[in-house]
Each structure stands twice: as structure tokens, then as C-alpha cells.
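Ticket #541: bound-state structure for flavin-adenine dinucleotide.
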Amino acid sequence: MSAPTPGPDDRRGRAAGPGGIVIVGAGPAGYACALGLAALGVPSTLLDQNTTIAAGSRATGISRRSLELLSSCGVADAVMDVAVVQRANQAFAGDRELFLDWTPREPGRYPRIVNLQQDLFEVMLADALRERQEIDMRWGHRVDDIRASDAGVRLEVETSDGRRSMDADWVVACDGARSAIRRRLGLRLTGVAYDTRFIVVDVHAPIALEQGVRRIWFDPPSNPGGTVIMHQQTRDIWRIDFGISPDEEEAAALGPEAVQARVRAHLELLGVTDAWEIVWSGDYTATSVALERFRDGRVFFAGDAAHLVPIFGGRGLNSAIEDGFNLAWKLAAVVGGGAGPELLDTYSNERVEGARQNSAKAGIGAEVIAARSPGSLLLRRAALELMQGPRPALKTLLGHRTTDANVYARSELIVDPASEDDVSSPGRALPDFLTQAPDGSRQYLSDALDDGFAVLSVGTPPHGLDVPATFMGLPVQQLAIADAAYDDLEPAVTSPLAPGTYVLRPDRYIMARDAGGDGTKLRRLLHSPPFSSTRTQEAAR
Ligand SMILES: Cc1cc2nc3c(=O)[nH]c(=O)nc-3n(C[C@H](O)[C@H](O)[C@H](O)COP(=O)(O)OP(=O)(O)OC[C@H]3O[C@@H](n4cnc5c(N)ncnc54)[C@H](O)[C@@H]3O)c2cc1C
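RESOLUTION: The complex was predicted; output attached.
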């Protein structure tokens, strides 16, 4: 790797620190990457073209997995203080109820999904960022051009003081769906675009409905031929998405008066008579597209810059956070010298796989929700018919499971990924649950873990397992919890982790496990880390 070269913008010396990581775009992906790096003590510079956080809710669902990743920086607690927990899913055909499904009780500190306007969420992320001296946040910095070579990356940045050049060793492009960096590098998103357009509105209204229910109407009287999705957010703000019917002319439907009329009709359907006000509106077309690779030499793509998924399963924002944390620890390992740069290819491999899983899961739901073609409309009619009767499983098309974490079954970083549907197998996201330490103290696993790697024993660790202080150059925590089932602590809930010893990654994925063996596999892994920089250098010689 090249030595950091100060660029002309460097008024405070090499602000991005050793490794020179510049993140472009302070949205969920950029914040996550910067916070993930800072948690491991690695500096970064975060640039955003705006001078402040953009107003408007956009995404509204924050997943359990995102909350777990954001727990150590305090964001998860801030979210939980104000967010609305999604407790149920309800669907209607016309104004007739199809089903009301309550989310089952599950182990872990956080609910499956909570609702909070994206702009309020970003304020919390920005607050957390300010606490970290490792992050140099620069608002009002728009990246207009990029030149990347094997030696480093040069960015051309427009600021209120004029145009500057800025050098970096690594650039993370988190600059959103219209990514200028992606376009400058000549890279293209490919995939499927759904035709249906959605009007997305935030309405301030006192609505006396059951709390925390996500509601979806197909062909309701308030939006004939289309769909309506409604989420309760915080501060009496309701998010209403109107899918425009194929027969409507889009330009007219998106006009302010048409939007107002649609909201009025829907609130009347719900029996709202008090005053209400539209506080934000936007429009959206569902797409399922991605880059082929999320790494281009020294430039990485994360969040919407890398992939777009239909929003109906809440995957846009949450996959952006997942990307940020996946990349952060790998960059930290590489700039700290604990791993060679080849490790960074696993970011692309894992997250491309994640984007494919997200598209596959969101795709069928999008066909039903954003149906427009004759084939999709036929599928929707059939699905709705079956949901009411003998095929209740089809409800999952509209359900909460869409926010399940990705599985890295093919990653070269995962030791012996199990193929069976086993939540404690390597390649799965670590499930959270209430644990009991050998001394009897009780704590959620998400609270017990530090920010680096962890070697966790559920039950007795293998004899003579000598855990090093660092692994891939990052700190390793060793912890043990008593045996597996805690029915007395969380009624009807048992520990999802089977007895054994686990190597856990900083992004809370299970990397390896020894289930009742002699520990040889873990010993070998812990003392001979993959992608080791020493091994890389030896191979190069
Ligand atoms: C109307 C609408 C509704 C949505 N609803 C949902 C939903 O219900 N659920 C869901 O999960 N997702 C939803 N999404 C998607 C969700 O908002 C995104 O997936 C999420 O914001 C992606 O985060 P990101 O960090 O990748 O990008 P963004 O949030 O777009 O952030 C990109 C950042 O980069 C900055 N930037 C851009 N270009 C430059 C440049 N050249 N130089 C410097 N800075 C730059 C921007 O100012 C911005 O701050 C919705 C999106 C829209 C538009």
C-alpha cells in the first residue's frame, strides 16, 4: 500500500489518518462505515455535498440487525427511545381485511423492525459521529471527479471555498442512487425496474388506530386500482405510500393537489376528521439493480451507490448499514497491517451475494405490491385469493421476514459454512439473546460484545484453547456463557446458539465454530489468520 500523501485540502495534516480512507456521502452507508472504522480506532474523512442532513423521511423501517450493529455507539438506544415498534402486519383487499398477523415474540434485545423517519435517524447517526474524534466530517464537499490508480485515488471536490483536490488510499463511495463516482468510473447498475410509481407522503395527523401495525391495501376505495401502504412513525407522523394505478397519468398524479386529494380520501376511509397536514412528499419507482462487483481497485461502493432494492421489505437503508459495517472492519484490518488487501475482495463477494438474496426476497413481494403488467396483476389476484384461504404461507410475501440478515454460505472468510438451516452455523448473522455468564450474571449478548472479534463459548470451551490478543490485527475478546437454554429468563424463548465455541466477526457474523470438537479447527484459524499480510508478502516474494 502506498504511504499516505497529503493532498492540497489537507489543512489539518493528513486528516484521514494512516490508511487515508475517504468516505463520500453521509447517508446510512457512509455513517455506518465511518462509525465502524472509528469503533476500531481507524480514522476516516467523511464528505457530503449538503451542508446539513437532508429533510424527509424516505426510509422508515430500521431492522434488528441494524440496531445490533449500532448498539455500541449509542444510536440503537436513541432510536429505541422514540421509534414505533412494528408489531403486526395487516392486509386488505378493497376495504375488506385479509389478515392481521402479529409478529411472534423472538429472543434478543431489539424488535424485528422499528419505524423512525430516516432524517431523524440520521440526526442520531450524526450525533454519534460527533463523539468520535477519529471521524473528520466535512459538510459542503461535493465530489465531482475521481481518478484512481494502483497507487492511490485523487478526488476533485467542490467546496464553498472553491475546488480542491484530495488524495486517499481508499475511497468508499456511499454517494447514493445517482452516485457520481460510479458514473465517473463508467460502472453500471443492472437488473430489473418495476414500472409502478409510488407517491410517498408523510402526514402529521392524530389517527386512532392500533399502534405499530403496518397496513397494506390492494385496490382500496381511496386509491382505486392501486395499493396503499401505511406505517406509523414517531411524533404522530404517518407514512403513506400510494402505488399509482396503471391507468393514471403520472405527471397529473404527482401534482400537489392530486397528492392532497389522495391523502384526504385515505384518511376519510380511516375515519379521520381532525386537521392533518402533509409534512413531506416524494416519489419512488421500485428497482432491483446492482453493480457486478462492489470493489473497483481502491474504490468501494456501498448502499444505494452499489445496489437498489424495492423498498417494501425495508432493505434499502438496512442493507446500506450492513455494507458499511462489513467493509469497515476489513478496511481496519488492512490499514492496520493485520491483513493483506485481498481481504477487501471479500467485502464485494459477500455483499454482492447479500444484494442478490435481498433482490430475490424483495422481488416477489414487489411483483405483488408494485404489479402493473398483466402477468403481475394476475399473480397479485391469485396471491390475494390464496392468502385468504388455504395458503396462508403466502402472507410472508407481505411480511416482516423480509428483513432477515443475509447468509454468507459461499464466503472464503467463513470456515465450513453449514448448508442446513441452522441459525448457529458459520456464515449466519449472530443471533442476539439473553445470556447467563458462569457467575450467574445476565446480559444480552449484543451488550456483552466489544467492537472487535470475539471467541464465545456457549458451555465449556475446548481444552487448551489459547486465544490470541489480536486476530487479523484487531482486538479479540474472549467470553463464555453458561449452557444453552434460558426459558426461565425469557419465557417461551430458548438460546438460538447451540453449545460450542464460536469465532465472531466485528460485524457480528459467525466466522467459525467448534461444536463439541477438540478445538483444533479454531486453534488453526486463530493462529494462522486468513489473508494475513505476512502471508501475502511471502506469496509476493
Ligand atoms: C422516496 C423514497 C422512499 C424510500 N423509502 C424507503 C423505505 O421505506 N425503506 C427503505 O429501506 N428504504 C427506503 N428508501 C431508500 C433509502 O432511503 C436508501 O436505501 C438509503 O438512504 C440508502 O442509504 P445510502 O447511504 O446508500 O444513500 P443516501 O441516503 O442516498 O445518501 C447518499 C449521501 O451522499 C451524498 N452525496 C451524493 N452525491 C455526492 C457527491 N458527489 N459528493 C458528496 N456527497 C454526495 C448525499 O448528499 C447523501 O447525503 C427510500 C428512498 C426514497 C427516495
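RESOLUTION NOTES: Residues 1-19 have pLDDT under 50 and may be disordered.
TICKET STATUS: resolved
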